[in-house]
Specification:
alpha/beta, globular, Peroxisomal Thiolase, Chain A, domain 1, 394 residues, Thiolase-like, 11 strands
Length: 394
Amino acid sequence: MTSGTPYGKRKVAVAGVALSDCGRVDEATPYALHAQAARRALADSGLDRSVIDGFASAGLGTLAPVEVAEYLGLRPTWVDSTSVGGATWEVMAAHAADAIAAGHAKAVLLVYGSTARADIKAGRRTSNLSFGARGPLQFEAPYGHTLIAKYAMAARRHMHQYGTTLEQLAQIAVQARANAAANPDALYRDPITVDEVLAGPMIADPFTKLHCCIRSDGGCAVLLVAEDYVPDLAKPPVWVLGSGTAVSHTTMSEWDDFTVSPAAVSGRLAFERAGVRPAEIDLAELYDAFTYMTLVTLEDLGFCAKGEGGAFVGKGRLLRDGELPVNTDGGGLAACHPGMRGLFLLVEAVRQLRGEAGPDRQVRKPDGGLPQLAVASGTGGWFCSSGTVVLGRG
């Protein structure tokens, strides 16, 4: 397989990426954040909006992506509204890349925006214990089996089975905050210690508050294009080299192994299709709603053996200048998490590969050069779904 040529057809490039205003955004609507991110991504690409013939969106409106496309003044001929939680955007990127490679679209815009934090503060949104109480979930919801409780159960199983410690899980939060320190867009930048993570208020055993993602406002956009447009781009392209998707379960009783996520499948497929090995990856952007999610995804993508994630995350390996920089913007644990965060992973991976992260947080190879390969892997639900995308510089 030629690098960046899915199925031997047209190459697919990331042409533009952007964030909307993020963090604390009290005066904007989710639609406005979508529009802001979309305009910025288009400007980043150097292309005219008339090239967009594909659109992907989820999480907003009754008929997503129809409502958002209308708000943006777009009339796409290819659309996707796949919604699988945090993995949505990697799955959508995979679908879009396939469509472009097959000639069904030439330029697909993926865009997301949410005022999750502002809605809570203003009383527009109330908390709920369950995603729903119909279908398979009816057998769990009456017993108070919340989303975070499901992650907590899985973490406890990993600790029991492999000896993973709370201190090791806390290291993930500490290193995420350290990476956020140099990111001006991060909501929380002050350093934290392992002791502070462990001493925080208990949310769901074994997770204290700092084991859990933050709640913020924000949006972002990514524009994928066919190779035909590359000569017209404002910046060098980042190529989509391979992708993989997978689903696992929705009912906990149907989850074969609490210590294995669907990233074990999506990652294998993405690496095989990209023609690269995990050892060749220069940086990883991983969904981190909870510290355990980072740990198990590292294992399942093949960066360390199953059960060795606890030892792997120590010694600063995940820092910007570590052996495997992970969530270089601070991730959902420190930078931003307005809900389905998967698209932010792609934005950060592209910026790092382009060398645009800035002098204080740009990842460099040991020889001082820019990173060549990155992986973005999103997780949805309670390890119910996964999408993994491998990206490379031209």
